[in-house]
Amino acid sequence: MAYTVSVTWIAKQGEEEAVEAALKALVEPSRAEPGVLVYIPHRDPEDPRKFYIFEQYADEAAYTAHTETEHFKTLGFGDAIPRLEDRKREFYEPLV
Q: Is the pTM of this model over 0.90?
């Protein structure tokens, strides 16, 4: 059963391009992780400070493993997240 993570990031004013660059850099290594089913970052066309990331993992353990990877520690926690004004994460499990 897939474990879904829905993430919304709001970049601080002036940090939009750096956040986008970090997200783009995360795509390839994240998708290569065992247990990652879907990893798709998006940017709101009407609000360039707003980003949405749709993630699906084989299970919750695969998501936890993702947050502990070197690329996420460096690009996510170390680069993008400090550039955010707001960060919201929601977690979902399938009904069937």
A: yes
Boundaries of every domain in the chain: 3-92
Tens digits of residue pLDDT in 10-50: 999 999 999 999 999 999 999 999 999 999 999 999 999 99
* Residue 86 backbone phi and psi in degrees, to 5: -150, 150
Would residue 61 be called left, alpha or beta, if left means φ above 0 and alpha means ψ between -120 and 50 degrees?
alpha
- The residue with tokens 């709101």 is 44
- Contact at 8 Å (CB) between 11 and 82? no
CATH class of 3-92: alpha beta
DSSP 8-state assignment for residue 74: I
